[in-house]
Fold these 3 entries.
Entry 1:
Amino acid sequence: MSDQGPFASAPNETHTQIMRATYEALRKHGYSELTIQRIGDEFPKSKSLIYQHYDGKDELLVAFLEFLLERFRADVPTEEFDDAREHLETIIDHGLPESLGEEDEAFTTAVEALRGQAPHDETYREQYARINEFYRERTADVIHRGIEQGVFREVDPEQAAGFIVATIHGARSQRVSTGDHEPVLAARRELEEYVRTRLLVEENR
Amino acid sequence: MSDQGPFASAPNETHTQIMRATYEALRKHGYSELTIQRIGDEFPKSKSLIYQHYDGKDELLVAFLEFLLERFRADVPTEEFDDAREHLETIIDHGLPESLGEEDEAFTTAVEALRGQAPHDETYREQYARINEFYRERTADVIHRGIEQGVFREVDPEQAAGFIVATIHGARSQRVSTGDHEPVLAARRELEEYVRTRLLVEENR
């Protein structure tokens, strides 16, 4: 999560304000207690504007999920790194930071609050599948480049990336559902060992 | 998940029947649409019995979560294995099976449906923390034994176990939120490689 949080762009635009209000209401009340009324309480303009934009809570939440996941995409480290190993370590550091900022925790909480609904809603599943795919492909590209550079061994880049992304997701999910940062730290340290023993070619370890 | 599913013991006992009704209602409607009315629709006895046992939905769901997590505990492979490597592989195979049975998927869906509420409810967080701790400790014991047996290298058993449990949870969560089994297969295969390259002592690889 960047320092400006997920609402940095056009903060006064109505769509962004509705998204921010949804985020605040979800953060305060959780998914099961979320109502348009409570979203309206966090919205600086007239509540009727929310209804002008969305037919109801379900439509609003799908738009919100799309908004969150776009922010997530924009936030995965993609700057050009010359060294694939350094790039992969940055992805791991970004996903499993030594400490989780308040904004980052609130963001993860919001993404995870809606995930439980996915098995019952295809639109949600598509959103989670899209972001999963994006994160995995981005990571697989880095591993693929590392193999070309002779830094990484000839592993299956898709499989290794799927594994790394599952671990990062799992530890973050445990973090927000147990309130304990330890799962993130254990996963981070051991993922570094995985990179060293499984991915790096012998002479680079 | 064992073949009998989570309701094998005393299936006609009222408490088990309420738990089963909650499970069925949650499976059909998801968390956000869950009501006592809908739980009552799945319950073979009078709905008033549910109110005799629980003050409301929240109390019922906490009892349900406890019930699920007890079943989860009972299901983690704990039989005595002579070989720590074989035991660890059984834990991985159990957590990340080649294919997910219908019962196992429904069970995971139910556990994950309630997880999103955890950041907002300390009782939920405690339940998720308990099961996380149980799973991690059980796995750490196996790794510890493998080190003693000279099968595994001298890694930090707690850290390695935390990593394995985070990966298993992450892949299962991705499985039910995307509807795609591929994350489980990728995590399974690469976790086997992790065991080989990171845990096993050189002469056993």
Entry 2:
Amino acid sequence: MNIKPLGDRVVIRRLEAEEKTKSGIVLPGTAKEQPQMAEIMAVGPGGMIDGKEVVMEVKVGDKVIFSKYAGTEVKHDGVEYTILRQNDILAIVE
Amino acid sequence: MNIKPLGDRVVIRRLEAEEKTKSGIVLPGTAKEQPQMAEIMAVGPGGMIDGKEVVMEVKVGDKVIFSKYAGTEVKHDGVEYTILRQNDILAIVE
Amino acid sequence: MNIKPLGDRVVIRRLEAEEKTKSGIVLPGTAKEQPQMAEIMAVGPGGMIDGKEVVMEVKVGDKVIFSKYAGTEVKHDGVEYTILRQNDILAIVE
Amino acid sequence: MNIKPLGDRVVIRRLEAEEKTKSGIVLPGTAKEQPQMAEIMAVGPGGMIDGKEVVMEVKVGDKVIFSKYAGTEVKHDGVEYTILRQNDILAIVE
Amino acid sequence: MNIKPLGDRVVIRRLEAEEKTKSGIVLPGTAKEQPQMAEIMAVGPGGMIDGKEVVMEVKVGDKVIFSKYAGTEVKHDGVEYTILRQNDILAIVE
Amino acid sequence: MNIKPLGDRVVIRRLEAEEKTKSGIVLPGTAKEQPQMAEIMAVGPGGMIDGKEVVMEVKVGDKVIFSKYAGTEVKHDGVEYTILRQNDILAIVE
Amino acid sequence: MNIKPLGDRVVIRRLEAEEKTKSGIVLPGTAKEQPQMAEIMAVGPGGMIDGKEVVMEVKVGDKVIFSKYAGTEVKHDGVEYTILRQNDILAIVE
């Protein structure tokens, strides 16, 4: 993929319901925050973000849970991606 | 469990009323903040969070009181979990 | 008591009106902030809280004035406690 | 007085209009902030407050101007006191 | 004058229209911020304010432009003063 | 171009739909944040911005995705530019 | 000019439409932020501002683009000036 996120941002691709069923995770969501599963497609370099050292903890290929309302959607070659900050990723699903 | 929280986040499972009765704790809640009891299921690595060093003080198996409105709910293999920051945990019940 | 507060939190038990009369303190309260007297029941370890070193200045048994709207109420073995941050305690009454 | 303020807080007693007349100070107040004169009754130890070193600049007996809406009112042995942060004191009147 | 401002505060006395005419400055003001001219009457010691070193750049006698809505008005011996933070002073008029 | 941005600001020129089609990127946008593609025309020096060291990660000629609502529009010799902070640039498209 | 701005403030004089035409810059403005061109008339000393080191990047005579809603208007000898922080200046036009 040719989208290179800046700073502590990552590019993710949402996983569909079928993919979630395979790993056994279901994300019901709530009114206050609707979580989603996704795969990491690209990872920014981290470094000094707003004057604070950020180390990237996720890597390409990680399955993650993130907050649905975080980030910006981008469509590339017919696939929708989301660009968001690593801090908006809640957990890695192994 | 295969949910690995990032940073200073933890995964908790809420304890039901019967479980609370056993330990003698009752959580009435108030309009402003409804506390809940839960068990710690997974603990993030801590480290530099928003440029501040966070040491994880809770461990898997701890019974804790947390604020009901904190965190994100995730359903996994039929069990509901909540992912929240350690800072949203008020106390450990021993 | 088996509630162990995390970080800079403390567990307090409110003192009733009669107890206040004994020490001569009356807390009228105002519309903006209603103060209350309480006894410290448990004290967190302090340490790095939000990246800032917090030293605990109160100890178990201290009589304190705190802001009524601060903290979370917890009922334990028929007694109501409040968990709040040390910063929400205004003064020690000696 | 047996109220010992924590951190950078001080306990003050408001001065009445007659007392103000003696020192020649009149505080008209405005809609946005109504200043008041008071005497310092007790001074907290200062030190690290929210991760910042605070040195106490006022001492018991100082006559000060403070913002009327700051702090918490406490009644003790029939006298009303206010507990507020040193930062809410605008000036010392000598 | 016997008002001694704390921290980075200064005491100023507003200059009337006639005084402004002499120095050739007219301050029309706008809806969002109405500037005013004043003379510095007293200057606080500066030092650590909210954990930041503040050096006082104004001195007694300086003519300054400040924001009308900043600070607290105090009347002393029939003269109205304003107590405000140095940061609310925009410029010195020489 | 003779617009020299200050601090961590950059000057960008929006890319039109046709240009986007060539690189295969489509930016559908959402109600919460409408992303846009642009080319970097000028880059500020970075350095200490609000007391934090900012290193410029973009360079003139980079194609970037940025948030539509960020920045200020400027028209120069018939071309519209936008001046915005590097932090408002989400990713570089290579 | 005898207005000496404090800290990281600068004094600017707005450039009229005709002056803009000469340099080829047109500033259409938008609902969210209406940019303006101006000339720098005076520059504060910079230094520690809110506990952060600020180096002044503009100098007297610079033509700059700034945000219309920033700063305070001052009229001096029949000329209107604006006093604003360097951070509200977006770019220098060379």
Entry 3:
Amino acid sequence: MDRIQRLQKELEKTDTDYVIIGTTSNMFYLVGFSEEQMERPLLLFVTKDDYFMLVPKLYEEQLKQLPLIVYRDGEDPYSKLNLKENSNILIDDTTFSLFTIEILNRFKPRRLGKASVILRKLRQVKDDEEIEKMEKGVKKAEELLLEFVPDIKENMTECEIERKLKSFLIGEAGYISFDPIVTSGPNSSMPHLRCSDKKVKGGEVIVIDYGIKYEGYSTDTTRVFSLGRPNDTLALEIVEIVKSANEEAEKHVREGMRAKEIDDIARKVITDKGYGVYFIHRTGHGIGIDVHEDPYISPGNDDVIEQNMVFTIEPGIYLPGKFGIRIEDEVVVKKGYGKVLNTLQKELYIL
Amino acid sequence: MDRIQRLQKELEKTDTDYVIIGTTSNMFYLVGFSEEQMERPLLLFVTKDDYFMLVPKLYEEQLKQLPLIVYRDGEDPYSKLNLKENSNILIDDTTFSLFTIEILNRFKPRRLGKASVILRKLRQVKDDEEIEKMEKGVKKAEELLLEFVPDIKENMTECEIERKLKSFLIGEAGYISFDPIVTSGPNSSMPHLRCSDKKVKGGEVIVIDYGIKYEGYSTDTTRVFSLGRPNDTLALEIVEIVKSANEEAEKHVREGMRAKEIDDIARKVITDKGYGVYFIHRTGHGIGIDVHEDPYISPGNDDVIEQNMVFTIEPGIYLPGKFGIRIEDEVVVKKGYGKVLNTLQKELYIL
């Protein structure tokens, strides 16, 4: 059964009239087409028994194998649509708001909801082909990182390293799943700082969080490095704690448990060592076409872990003004247990 | 006057209660912060006399100089907000719909509109500092393209060339403004096809449409190439027509005219030669932080061209099954006239 049909089968159980999808990961998932989101509406409409796409004229030749409603630049795209008013519409979560606002104001739905309520069920459980791509992706990404890191030298800036890594990953893999994070010393205590003009010094903690796209699927891995031995021996202690948290959580992944229980396990290890207040984010997130997707391994999340889900386990400890440590793997649930896709060492790499 | 204040001054003229901005170009424009959009709300709220940001805990240290409302993973972010119901809200056009849908369903606004109705007025007219960055960006981008194109060899696939170009641009410039388009022969008649596994052959038309980000500002340029002389002499005739259309439009840019008039001028040149039906898109688009922004140089667009606007002029002719030709420059309106930022030749480059 193709993916549009699987979505339609789910729609049958609801009173949804339309699912509207932009040029996002959901469009790629449903019809295999990917494009950056832009200001021209390029939207897929799925109903219980039909689907069609609203596309600008300049995509017509490229998409001719699909059922198209075509408009030209200068025409009003929405006037080509014949959506019924007062309907129940689900909108693709990451589609740009301008389309949602037009739909809302033009077609007066009685309800607008997030398409993820249905699509997440389909996407969070991967099929074997998807898992194979993701396994290969992680392998490839790891090889590339090991090839890259010897090029990190003292006095390069974080952004210089980030740029070289990004250029290298794209040259070798074609696509990245997000702009890599390269932070060092005190900057590493900010988990989502991308990089700065700070120069990397010997003995500082360096955090690298990066991913590629492999046949459309994202990878996401974090490891920690140091040029020579770390100056601050506390860094090695913290690495040990984060590594234990990571491994404890991974070891206890079971089909049927709740996402929050995985978070609890990692968090308990860190809290027991007195660093709970410095673990300032969730333990992980699902991954697939998107680098972040369901299930989220968050405190309080009751989602049940199922066979063939893939998610990250990435506890961290962030000491403001000092450094931060995060160790991130991807885990797939197979035969009831968690199988870690990563093979890189979790200890700090001394470069 | 800072940009938040300029926005607030515009809000004074309206009955808008909140402008809500995601981690998009508008956030960069207003507060200088840029981040990829993700599932965690990281939103800027602007009212007539105040502003604040809703941010995940893991960004707190990084953004501490701004007025923050912080939530932790596992908490309900929206419960931290105290927005009044029945308000008039403008939402940032390219913010993910999931945030808009939450705002809609949680805070029951009486009206939801697009923030671009106000922000476009600010953003489409650049200040001198922005224009200087954009001029430097185009210069840099052109140098990089000329450095790159000698590496294009017969039998490389389009996607191989695309990947090498992307990797090179990122390595040299740090960021690209969009994934480059590299198409050849019959594929070049699809204006937004990115690339394929088709091998590039001698004598075929090759279209390269690419851009970098320079200090946060996008460039966007298209030129046409051929390995050796083109096999089809029609290609050279079509290049001449497209070049005339491009130059006629550029020459006639004037402060005070309407956007549609520029489109008309380019379109007339192509239509007079009998190819009007093959010019399947608008003549251009504004450019700045975003690669596509107001003003759109589209048929029927009554927007008035003002001093310090920057936009592209990019007519094209697409002959399905044969080839497509597009020539794209950036133009800034200065002293009442259009000043072309590009210097690359418009004739087909024989490599």
